[in-house]
Amino acid sequence: MTTFEELSFLKGREQEALLAAGFSNALDLLEWLPKRYEDRRRFDAFPAQAGGPPVCLRGTVIDTQRKRFGGKGFYEAIIEDIGGGGFSRMTCRWFNMPFMHKMIAAGHEVVLYGKPKESAGRVVIDHPEFEVVREDALDSIHLECIVPIYKNVSGIPQRRLREIMHATLQGVSADALEPLYNVDVSYPRAEAFREVHFPGELSQTDAARRYFAKEEFFLQQLRVVWRRARSQEMTGRVLGKKTTLLKEFYESLPFDLTGAQKRSVKEIVGDLRVARPMNRLLQGDVGSGKTFVAMCAMLLAVDSGAQAALMAPTQILAEQHYLTFAKWLEPLGVRIGLATADRREEIHDAQIVIGTHALLYDKVEFDDLALVVIDEQHKFGVHQRGKLIQRGIMPDVLVMTATPIPRTLTLTIYGDLDVSVLDELPAGRGKIITGVRVRPKVSEMTKFLKEQLEKGRQLYLVYPLVEDSESIKAASAVAEHPKWEKRFKHFEVGLLHGKMPSEEKESVMTRFRDAKTEVLVATTVIEVGVDVPNANVMVIFNAERFGLAQLHQLRGRIGRGEHKSYCVLVTDGKSSDALDKLNILARTLDGFEIAEEDLRLRGPGEILGTQQSGVGGLRFVEFLADTSLIREAREVAEEVLRDDPRLEKNPQLKKWAIEQADVEMS
């Protein structure tokens, strides 16, 4: 691997800056890909009005001044369009940056990039990215071409960083750029690096980034396939031969399970009866009945003489599960325990233990944990899931999610799991009508809500904030709660949010569950696990502040009984994009369709979010919606392991695969 010491053009301080930024060699540096590109073969016209997208401008500085405004010092530069056509001047400002006079001065020719805004009747750009144009031999990579723009590296200006990248590409050998595995022999990796950093056309950057995305997805899929192959080799225990409790449970139900539930139970039974650990995902929309499928699986473990545990992300959800399991299973003689940070209920001899993160610690003892169920699994990190699994001896694992994952992402995230999908809702559910309301009159809304209360129904009023904020213009549950108490004088109005003590939260939920509280003013703490069939109305305020998937999760708290339900999405109407988003909710109740729309609107990176998903480290998340690319990467990974199951032919790749598997299993 080419080290920085071997790159003679690098100065000592530049080497130090690159090392401090985490780059240890030339390949590390070249993998610092551009964040965007500027087509400096032609520039935007100087804008005559504010708004619109960011612009890339070229001009001459004709005047600079240091000024003060509102107690803040700022540096101002007037830029004149070199072409001189149309509106030919632009004002740029840099606040609290007194050193700017040393960097940009009258007479400089500059390239600017920023978003025009209005200030005191003028069009200005605050804190634009900029470069001073200099006449030197390397101007060919700074002007009259497509120019890469990188995320800043401390101590190295943007222009100099571009020169370092260019020189590194010229000085590094093709051998030093070889990947762990070549996923596309028709596209040399050295060529992909050249085209992603210094393309002749923008279309080349798309092809190059897709190549690197395929490399990354190949490694991600190899990890998945390798881990799956390892799990297939493990020897587990056989459960589910005895079905006495399962049959008694079926007979005790006053309703029939859906076809999707029965199909999922059958798939789980098949896994449990094989002498290797089950690794299955149960994916279903809100209200599709995942809990009853989990009960069936856990009864099979109990009937085999072992224990089962269910871990939920919040105390409210864990306690809701505990009440549900106790209601249906204790009459069958099954002992149910609860373990949360604040409560311990009957855990000393429980056959099924339900809890939160408390299940991870020694205060909760297991005699023979054979089945682990993880609810809302995306709320837990890889290590947390692994820690609970390690509390048993090769237990079977069932993970559940009520957040529909777009079909295009399922292979990426859950490629090592068998997947069961609940794609139908139980019978007897009331219809949910969803409506978008722009700044509705409080009096009209109150009248509608009172009509529902007088029919004996209950309401959720959901706010994005716990308390009012100076920086965020949105309503809060704490501030609005007393107003609703005045409007509903003859009804009990409760308040629920995440900052309340656990005992107080449980007390509030119990009163609402028991219909003593008719109106619940809350934050998103009710997003999962709250099951009150009599609650048929939800009003979500500042709905534009929530993502589609979260709104769908919230809406899933109603429509759980036989009554017609109403979800009202209240918005200020200032954003047409936000209205389009909310109207998707009004159009459909299909969680998978909503997930696909959410993917289209927000992109995979926002949907997947953190490391919890297992793909948080991916650099090319924008390609996660490219199903064909993911399948290509999967096929390459499977082909590699078919040809070389132990990766003996590629020791470096084997070392990487083992390290990755151990990280996720630890």
Concise overview:
The chain has 666 residues and is an alpha/beta fold. It is built from 19 helices and 23 strands.
Main attributes?
5 domains; 666 residues; 36% helix; 23 strands; 19 helices; seven-stranded mixed β-sheet; globular; eight-stranded mixed β-sheet; OB fold (Dihydrolipoamide Acetyltransferase, E2P)
Topology:
Elements: H1 12-20, H2 26-30, E1 36-39, E2 55-69, E3 72-81, E4 89-95, E5 109-114, E6 117-119, E7 122-126, E8 129-132, E9 146-149, H3 158-171, H4 189-197, H5 202-233, H6 244-252, H7 259-272, E10 279-284, H8 290-303, E11 307-311, H9 315-329, E12 336-339, E13 344-345, E14 352-355, E15 369-374, H10 382-389, E16 396-401, H11 407-413, E17 418-422, E18 432-438, H12 442-454, E19 458-462, H13 477-487, E20 493-496, H14 502-513, E21 519-522, E22 535-540, H15 548-555, E23 565-571, H16 576-587, H17 591-608, H18 627-643, H19 651-665
Parallel strand pairs: 4-7, 10-16, 10-17, 11-14, 11-15, 12-14, 15-16, 18-23, 19-21, 19-22, 20-21, 22-23
Antiparallel strand pairs: 1-9, 2-3, 2-5, 3-4, 5-8, 6-7, 12-13
Helix pairs in contact: 4-5, 5-18, 6-8, 7-8
- Rg over CA atoms, rounded to whole Å, is 30 Å
Largest sheet: 8 strands, mixed
Percent range for helical residues? 25-40%
Second rung of CATH, namely the architecture of the largest domain: 3-Layer(aba) Sandwich
* CATH-level-4 superfamily name of the largest domain: P-loop containing nucleotide triphosphate hydrolases
Low-confidence stretches: 609-614
Strand portion, in percent? 15-25%
Q: Provide the residue-averaged pLDDT.
A: 87
Treating each run of at least 4 consecutive H or I residues as one helix, how many helices? Answer: 19
- Can you identify the CATH class of the largest domain? Alpha Beta
Gross geometry: globular
Total strands: the figure is 23
Strand order of the largest sheet: 13-12-14-11-15-16-10-17
Looking at the structure, the CATH topology of the largest domain is: Rossmann fold
Give the tally of structural domains: 5
Distance between the termini: 30 Å
Structural class: alpha/beta
